[in-house]
Amino acid sequence: MTTFTERQKEIINVSIKLIAEKGIQQLTIKNISKSLGISEPAIYRHFENKLDILLAILSNFKNSSKAAIKRIHSVDRSAIEQIEMMFLTHFKRFAEKPALAAVLFSEEIFQNDKRLSAQVSTIMKLSQQAMSTLIKKGQGNNEIRKDIPEEQLSLIIMGALRLIVKKWKLSNFSFDLEKEGGKLWKSIIKLIESAKKKRPFRTDLMDRTDLHSFIQYEIKNP
Amino acid sequence: MTTFTERQKEIINVSIKLIAEKGIQQLTIKNISKSLGISEPAIYRHFENKLDILLAILSNFKNSSKAAIKRIHSVDRSAIEQIEMMFLTHFKRFAEKPALAAVLFSEEIFQNDKRLSAQVSTIMKLSQQAMSTLIKKGQGNNEIRKDIPEEQLSLIIMGALRLIVKKWKLSNFSFDLEKEGGKLWKSIIKLIESAKKKRPFRTDLMDRTDLHSFIQYEIKNP
Amino acid sequence: MTTFTERQKEIINVSIKLIAEKGIQQLTIKNISKSLGISEPAIYRHFENKLDILLAILSNFKNSSKAAIKRIHSVDRSAIEQIEMMFLTHFKRFAEKPALAAVLFSEEIFQNDKRLSAQVSTIMKLSQQAMSTLIKKGQGNNEIRKDIPEEQLSLIIMGALRLIVKKWKLSNFSFDLEKEGGKLWKSIIKLIESAKKKRPFRTDLMDRTDLHSFIQYEIKNP
Amino acid sequence: MTTFTERQKEIINVSIKLIAEKGIQQLTIKNISKSLGISEPAIYRHFENKLDILLAILSNFKNSSKAAIKRIHSVDRSAIEQIEMMFLTHFKRFAEKPALAAVLFSEEIFQNDKRLSAQVSTIMKLSQQAMSTLIKKGQGNNEIRKDIPEEQLSLIIMGALRLIVKKWKLSNFSFDLEKEGGKLWKSIIKLIESAKKKRPFRTDLMDRTDLHSFIQYEIKNP
DNA sequence: AATGAATGAGATTTCATTCAT
DNA sequence: TATGAATGAAATCTCATTCAT
């Protein structure tokens, strides 16, 4: 788990911002250096080449995803609550750093290099597996319906999650992602909950100190 | 609804292929012309500039989407069946022309120009609205559950649809999209169908001549 | 004295206009053909190449200058009146076809080819010699002061004439060239007239039928 | 009043030379870089684009014109002498740097861009106004005849000045501009001097150390 | 007489990267 | 750690011109 210097982090963040705002085609060494107020060759003090910057972005995100997943899995909650955590963590993270959404949901950007696309695949699988694991647990618990295979449910949940983020981005971040995410979550619960054990929907969830602070933690320590 | 010359269509197709295979960064006039076996300036006889080629790709897809949607809406079927048609039409379309999937599910590619991203938005809204309309109809019919707002269901269905196409692409088209799409559809039906009026799932749907030929038609006549 | 076909004349005129309005750099085969509403290769039916179009412009103007000069010289008037005719003919010509001014007073445009710059030189010398001849006649007549050599007077008159046309062009043809030209002429007469034989300034000159019709003729038959 | 780096000055000078020798059409980045012995992209370290190079040429000339005019106006001399200074300064400047004449008397070259043609207009007006001011002063002093409006005299003088420079250029710099300029000046004095106060023509003017050194100064410190 | 399609040459500009300082 | 200057490669696009029809 590589760590980055301050300058490297600056470069990573500026790059994410540039991709988010102007697209991958505008992610040039010139633009990065201009954004940072340093010269172009200076970038090469911190990264060997441009590809390494892109890899660093991915590695950075992968690490923080891993950490978030680990924490969610280790929390002692019902499966549904844990899935909810994943959901909300996602939205909170992107709401706080919209550029990240733009970049991370744009795997195509990285497709022209094998190392890059491998990394992207790994990242995608990471959260899908985490989701799958939680769903399986929920199905074991009778929290979640069993008539639909766990991979399908995972696909459906992740798909909705991704699409709402994408819409948010296409709308120029013009709606409240966390609020809409909350609504979406309510609907998804209805869809996936086991018929037998209907639980009352807990509107208070987001306010509960522990979950809230948990999510906060994830965002501050990606 | 602009029509394109033969050469223009060739350029459009080659461009889609290039984007799909090598990413937008490799969509250069040189590569396009090389693929067609003509000189670079020759391209400019057919499109004023590169942006126009990208716009043509989008316009082309938009037109065929519109036509497909129109036909689906005008068919006299239950809402669920119509949604199924949309689903399967989508998959069939992409299965027949994988490159299109690569391009069309990569809206980020087009983000660096206002005209492009406007077109992308329009296209996305097109199928979402079509889906919404059908769901509303189904809810009116008691075919589809009413406890979840129609926009949410639409979001969830479209999200799943998009994600499976994206996975297919990331897997290098290594699974059978139509087959997996069929499975996904089965799961989705279970999720959205109205509890009261459970219909038996019709595995035979895809084989029925009329639907099949309908979809075929859409693909051959975009 | 080559004559031109109708199409050739059209091409010449359009070319003059293009140079006048947008500069020599915008005089491209594409722009010429677009202005005429024909295809690019069509131009090559009428002129072998681009250089020939430029030569035709010059040849055209040279011919009409020669004719005008010849007529002025053959008119039976005082030298001062003949010079006045040259002056006014010039202004009238340009006032009716401003583009011509833009082109003809821009000899630099043609400098990158020997044949072109030779033609330009010839044209310039043409009117200067004509002017010189008239001045010499005037000095012989005692109409024009003799204390300044005839080449100097010619230079001064032609210089003023050119500068006012250039100013007119730079001002975007926003003043009345003929009127300002008339004023300039009054001043020049005062400067060059022989001290002894002061003639009254004839404001009526431009109205006199013969001069007027003479100038008209020159413009219509360049 | 922007100052230029050494490389920028080199580029400016090389560009002037290229325009003078081969015409604006040969002023290409390739030719500039070849002349300087550097690569084409290297030019872009020093100027953002080609237009900026042209603007720099004009700006450079404008600045030096302003300085020259300021100095001439501030000298304590008769109006006629000051006009003479303007005349001779002009000729000396161009005689020392013939390429500049080629470029500066070819405003057409710059007509295809608004910023360029605006600058050209400004420069033209600059010296015309300076000339007008001096003539008005001379008319107030009874040095210069009053029967011709000051704008007309200014036009006539500037026109002659410009035309002789242009002829010099068209002749391939084959005569002695300063000498011919001197002759022209003698003629012009005769034309404009007030009848009452005939001053002896001062052939010695150009030799007088102060004027000479003044002009020298202007040329070396533009 | 005209055109659609094409092309070699070349224009301006951008890019990632290097090197000397 | 940083920079000014530079560069090879390549991108987009324009130009005058040709050729088959």
Characterization of this structure:
- Four copies of one chain form a homotetramer.
- Chain A has 222 residues and is mainly α.
- Chain A has one domain: Orthogonal Bundle (Tetracycline Repressor, domain 2).
- Helices cover 72% and strands 0% of the residues of chain A.
- Chain A is built from ten helices and no strands.
- Chain A has helices spanning 6-22, 29-36, 40-46, 50-74, 79-96, 98-104, 114-141, 150-170, 177-192, 209-220.
- Chain A is elongated.
- Chain A starts with 5 loop residues before the first helix and ends with a helix.
- Residues 203-209 of chain A have low confidence and may be disordered.
- The C-D interface holds C 22-26, 102, 105-109, 111-112, 117, 120-121, 124, 147-149, 152-153, 155-156, 158-164, 166-167, 170, 183-184, 187-188, 190-192 and D 22-26, 102, 105-109, 111-112, 117, 120-121, 124, 147-149, 152-153, 155-156, 158-164, 166-167, 170, 183-184, 187-188, 190-192.
- Chain B binds a DNA duplex (21 and 21 nucleotides) through helix 3.
